[in-house]
Every structure is written in structure tokens, then in C-alpha cells.
Fold:
Amino acid sequence: MSNWLRHIGILEWIAIIDGAADEAVKSAVKDHLACCTECEEFLDEIKAVRSKLLDSAFQVRVANTPGVEHSQRALEMALTELRKEKPAPASVEDRLAAVMAVITPICGAGGASRVAASARRRIGGSLHKVVPAERWPEFLQYVSSTTALLCGDTAAQMVWVAGME
Amino acid sequence: MSAPGECTVSTERRMDREDTRALEEFLDCPSLDTFPPLFLVLHPRVHRFFAVRGCQADSDELAQDVLLSVYHHGAEVRDRRLFYGWIFQVARNRFLQYLREKKRPEGFEFTAIGEAALAAAQGADPLQDYSFARLIANVDPLARQILTLRFVDELDYDEIAFALGIPAGTVKWKVFDAKQRLRAFLTKGKR
Structure:
């Protein structure tokens, strides 16, 4: 093992080189460097390496960074693309609220709450179990079937349409 | 704008704050209104990520793919401090997919950096002894990858660790070890 690694711990070296050392480490290393030319030379050489890496990486960045206008054009293209996409699906709570808004006028408040209670029992009481959204159609199918039993096929169909919108 | 009597900060630091604000606003409420400022912050870095790795011809498309992923999934990132690490993880995965599509070996990543950096250095200060590509050619592939993320892509240790899926301690050690190796290389060249 080199002396400079015996004299100063690796984490201290890393912190010193990165300029991230706290005052206690800085002070201890400074005291040591004052009397150890080997470590002093090592630190100077490592700092020179870091400086070369920083300078040469800067050249790479300068040569490869697109200009502001380039980024503006890319943004326009991205926004065009995003506007073409369908809006993100509503949350499960929002979807269920939309379904209940359809059920209530047809089945009455009592009927709607019986459908809701039955649906919640089906999923163990928590709407979070319907997430991910892939499980929503399965859940909606159950709500729709319950609605058919309580309020007829037309209501069930309306529930299905409202839930899938 | 700074309030009267407020400390003066460097332009670079102000840019950092603007970047952070754009990021926070998007993550708090991802929408087509909050996305453009973040896009303009991220695009140069993401585009450059692909350009320096030899995808100049396709870097527009590749950067677009990554930034659309940011729009769709950025808000899912749990630890906001590692957001840049996550973006570079997405970029890296897209880059590896691109290499597979083009049937290029993964080592191409670093050859390409060399070509790009050497080309850039041709028009640069002739007193500059070593280009970035020539420097990192002296260390192992993982160290090359880490040094590029650290110095060219400007990620911190934690972000690099997240992007590569390795411990931050390993990243710190690899950077330090690489500097030691480069020190030996440069010292030898001098003597």
C-alpha cells in the first residue's frame, strides 16, 4: 500500500479532492501535508488529473450541447406529440364517482349505495385494490352486473358506458 | 429577481435554482403547462448524452423518447433528489436498446465518445495535452462509464449510483481509483 493511503484515509482523500471535506478533515489533512512531501505531491498530481478531466469534459460538452433554438424546436415537436395522445385515465375514485352519478337517478340513493357497498365488499373494502387500472374493467363488470340485478339491463349498460369513458 | 440587500449569487447558481423550480413545479403538478420549462432545462443534457455516445444522427429522436418518458413517468420518481439519476437511467436504457436495434456492440459507447471528443479537441486549444477520450481510454470500461457520467454528464455520486444500479461507495471508489491510474499515466508521460 502506498504511504499516502496509509497516512490519510480513502474517504478523507475523496472528500479533499472533491472539495467536500468538512473543516475538521481539512485541518487534519493540512497539518499532515505540512510535514509529508509524499502526500503533498500526491494531492497536487491528483488535483491536476481532476483538472484535466474537468477541462477536457468541458470541451466535450461545448462541442455536443444543442443550442436554445434546437431545444425550442424539439419542445414544439414534443408538445405536438403529447397533444395527440389521449388524456390520462381518471383515478379509480373519479371513475367510480362518475358511475355512481349514473346509478343514483335510476336506482335511487338506496340502490346506488347497495351497488357501491356490494362493489366495495367485492374488492375487500379498498379502492386501491382496483389499481393498477388494468383491473378496472373487471371491477366495472361486477358493478354493472350488480346494477343489472337491482335496476335492470339498461341501467347496467349506462353504468358500463360511463365507467369506460 | 433578487430583493435589495440579498446576497449576489453566480449566474450558474441562479440557473440551478431555476432548474430546480422547473423540476419541482412539474413534479408537483405534471401537465402540458409545467412540462415546457422542465423540457428546456433537460433537453440539452439528454440530447448531449446521446450525441457524445456516437448517436449524433439519431440523438434528436432518442432525446425526444426520453423526455416523453419524463412527461409520462417523472412524477412516479419517489426520491426527487435522484431525479437526474433516474433520467440518466432511462437515457442509458434507451441507449442500450438503440445499440441492440442497430446491432452494435455495447463497447461502441466508449469508442464513440472517443471519436466525438477527439473531433471536438481538434478545434480546441492546442495546449490541451489530452482529450477526455484519450484520458478515459486508460481505465476499465465501468470506470470510463462512471467518469463520463461524472464529468461530461455532470451527475453526482448518488445519481450515478442510481443510474447504473450500483452502490454510491463503489462509484466514489471507482472515480478515485481512476484518478490514481490517470495520475500514473500522466506522470509517466511527463517523465
Residues 1-14, 124-129 of chain B have pLDDT under 50 and may be disordered. Residues 118-191 of chain B form a domain with the Arc Repressor Mutant, subunit A fold (CATH 1.10.10.10). Chain B touches chain A through 46 residues (CB under 8 Å). Chain B has two domains: 11-108, 118-191.
